[in-house]
Design goal:
The chain has helices at 15-19, 46-72, 79-92, 104-114, 168-175, 229-242, 260-270, 312-322, 394-403; strands at residues 2-9, 24-27, 32-37, 40-45, 100-102, 117-120, 123-127, 133-138, 154-158, 161-162, 182-189, 192-199, 201-204, 208-212, 217-222, 247-251, 274-280, 286-291, 301-305, 327-330, 338-345, 350-359, 375-376. Helix 7 (260-270) runs parallel beside helix 8. Helices cover 27% and strands 31% of the residues. Strands 1, 5, 17, 18, 21 and 22 form a six-stranded mixed sheet that branches. Strands 7, 8, 9, 10, 11 and 12 form a six-stranded antiparallel sheet that branches. A six-stranded mixed sheet has the order 14-15-16-19-20-23, with helices on both faces. It contains nine helices and 23 strands.
């Protein structure tokens, strides 16, 4: 779950330069300080002097280590590389895979992907229980769909750079890139390890699709929650009602989430006034996300979820569940119930930091726990008998049985 603020932070790029200045400090009775050294005098106010001392005490050790590495490491290493390492190290100390630093290029790619359209190969990624990055789904008509890429394939490396679960967003950013350029990805499928090279292309991630399962039952699948999802969802509801639907299945399986405010907009179409979710920060401050009276449809529906239903999709699920709007079918969801704030820095780079935790309307913890369905049904595929109303999908069958009551 992501929030973006476009206000600028002051990026202190001179931290390591201040520490290296040589000289003494002279305090005058006026509260003005003079820094003397190397034949020059710099006048500082008390506030500036205090800031200087803070930077010296806070970053002096890091600067000393950086200089030692640059002078004595067995191969040359750039100052930019070490400065990036200091920043990455701060985020690594949080042990939070959702917080991190992004270069200007990485930030641009991240925002493009959250808006639904980007240039890349067309794969939806997640992290499995073994801390590996794997393929949740392949976007139709994308470069990935035209090669031997399958769901559950594990990504080991991109252009020779290895990635693990904690590097999910950096891995995704490296897979994306300018249209017409190439990228080589190393996959693992079972015991087989193989490389595939793709030519990146424009990918439009249409996040909502729909169909009719029979004359009176509609089916709506939401693959991700991006800027256009709420309007696409409204269109889907209108279309299936026009085609004769009296009830429908809302499928959120494999939905890794996205924008929380868009998830609340979708909930607003499905429920009257109520609380969908609330956030709480480290100080105990709460913010409530609510819907207003007036639904877009009166059709009853059932929600399908699985272990890859995460983030904003879990918020939508638990809001509908606890307000008694729909029954939930499937398996325990992923359990990402935290929100990240993205702050862009003055040089175009950005930081993404987890700042709040989400709770269900009744106060249930989502993060690290997930949402328990009302009806726990494991997914299994089978060949349905001819002339049968069964679908070959055990979870979908269970949802249809509930709607048929």
């Amino acid at each position: 779950m992501v929030k973006v603020k476009k206000g600028l932070l002051v990026f202190i790029a001179v931290i390591f330069l201040i520490v290296g200045v040589i000289g003494g400090i002279v305090l005058e009775g006026s509260g003005i300080l003079e820094k003397v050294g190397m034949g020059s005098v710099v006048t500082l106010s008390r506030a500036q002097y205090d800031d200087y001392q803070y930077l010296l005490n806070t970053f002096g050790k890091a600067d000393t280590i950086k200089k030692y590495i640059m002078q004595h490491y067995y191969v040359p290493v750039s100052e930019e590389t070490l400065d990036r390492g200091v920043i990455d190290g701060m985020f690594a100390s949080l042990d939070d895979i959702y917080s991190g630093y992004y270069s200007a290029e990485e930030y641009s790619t991240l925002i493009s992907s959250l808006n639904g359209d980007y240039e890349g190969v067309g794969m939806v990624l997640s992290v499995d229980d073994n801390d590996r990055i794997y393929i949740v789904s392949v976007i139709p008509d994308s470069p990935a769909s035209m090669q031997d890429v399958q769901e559950d394939d594990v990504i080991l490396a991109v252009d020779g750079v290895e990635y693990a679960g904690g590097d999910l967003e950096l891995c995704a950013a490296r897979v994306r890139g300018e249209k017409g350029t190439s990228v080589t990805i190393t996959f693992m499928r079972g015991d087989r390890i193989f490389d595939l090279t793709f030519i990146r292309s424009y990918v439009h991630n249409l996040s909502v699709s729909w169909s009719m399962l029979d004359e009176t039952t509609g089916y709506i699948y939401i693959s991700s929650i991006v800027d256009s999802t709420s309007s696409e969802f409204r269109t889907a509801v209108e279309r299936i009602e026009k085609d004769g639907a009296e009830k429908f299945v809302l499928d959120l399986r494999g939905n890794g989430g996205g924008w929380v405010d868009i998830a609340v907009e979708i909930a607003d179409m499905l429920m009257d006034k109520g609380t969908v979710v609330y956030t709480q920060d480290q100080y105990g401050n709460r913010e409530y996300s609510t819907t207003k009276n007036g639904k877009a449809t009166q059709m009853p529906f059932v929600v399908l979820v699985d272990q890859d239903t995460a983030s904003a999709a879990e918020i939508l699920t638990v809001g509908l569940q606890e307000n008694g709007i729909a029954e939930i079918v499937g398996t325990q969801t992923y359990g990402k119930g935290i929100v990240q704030d993205i702050q862009q820095l003055t040089d175009g780079s950005a930081v993404k930091l987890t700042i709040m935790q989400y709770f269900s309307p009744s106060g249930r913890v989502i993060n690290g726990v997930g949402v328990t369905p009302d009806h726990v049904v494991k997914y299994e595929y089978y060949e349905p008998p001819e002339d049968s109303a069964l679908t070959g999908d055990t979870q979908l069958d269970a949802a249809l049985e509930i709607l048929g009551r």
